[in-house]
Amino acid sequence: MEDVWQFIPYPWLIVGGLVSISVTGMYLVKRFVLVQLQSIKRSEGRHVTSILLNSLSKPLSIFILVLNIYLLQYLLLKHELIADQYNKQVDITAQIGIIIALLVFAERFCNQLVVSYADSSDVLRNSQSIIRGTSKLLIISIGSLVILGTLGISITPIVASLGITSLAVALALQPTLENFFSGVQLVIDKPIRVGDFVELDSGEQGFVEKIGWRSTWIKMLPNNIVVMPNSILSQSKVINYYYPEKELSVPVDVGVHYDSDLEHVERVTLEVAKEILHSHKWGISDYDTFVVFHTFDSSSINFTVMLRAEEYFNRFFIKSAFIKALHARYRQEGIVIPYPIRAINTEQEKAEPSNRNTAPP
Prior knowledge:
- The protein is α+β, with helices and mostly antiparallel strands.
- Helices cover 56% and strands 14% of the residues.
- It is built from 13 helices and 8 strands.
- This is Small-conductance mechanosensitive channel.
């Protein structure tokens, strides 16, 4: 067989063709096997085996390349197309490839695990970006040290110098580290969570989209994003309309004429309020609504009706429906909602001439 290679004009092309066929065949086998295994585990949802299979695709591709590097080395050495001195370089390259494959697998597995279980855990859902970023940085750091050791570079001085340089890095990255630890504090303390509707002390309102390692993203009702640094947010006054629960009271201020029968007004108002809470899709039907009279105003007796909505954003629609229904019912019952009135005392406003020397007309 070795004599046959002497008569082949382009042995490099033959070796390259064999390796290419090997790479293609292994890749097709890998894809077929993974697809079959994933179809079996697809019904199990977040099962760890499914996450494991989803994380294997790229690492297996790198591992296939490593195997074919060894195959290429074997063919070239067998037919004396390269010298034996390249064995060490090929071994080092293959080892680095295996390390990279393991690092890629670890990084993808951690990300898939966090994303898969985020819906079932408030901590994971609120800290996805922080956990993924930290795990990625940790994996890259460990992998870099292992690769340096594989290349024959001593990592002991590097590890020793980390203690000296960490102080300088901490001083240089003080704002970044402050935002990072503030984000960790927000995740642990949980004053806000992803999906909560909040109001900042600066007046912006919106839904919490993401709590990142540097900033928190809040999506406002006009569909734009407010990006707040975690260090500022952790020191600010924030109103969370979804904590401890989404339900909230909806006060509606009303005024009636002074000649009104307040008992009748209260009875009619409560009937309308209960009807709205039962019929409206965002009303709380079992809420015990009430009326509180509180002010003798300049032209009306004012009171507050307390309604209940499923969440903050629904309160506008509950209030609108109640006002329309109450206005129509008051008209039927003859209850007057007065216009603002300003009385003018003409007798008091009469002025006597102050200049007595003025000649009569």
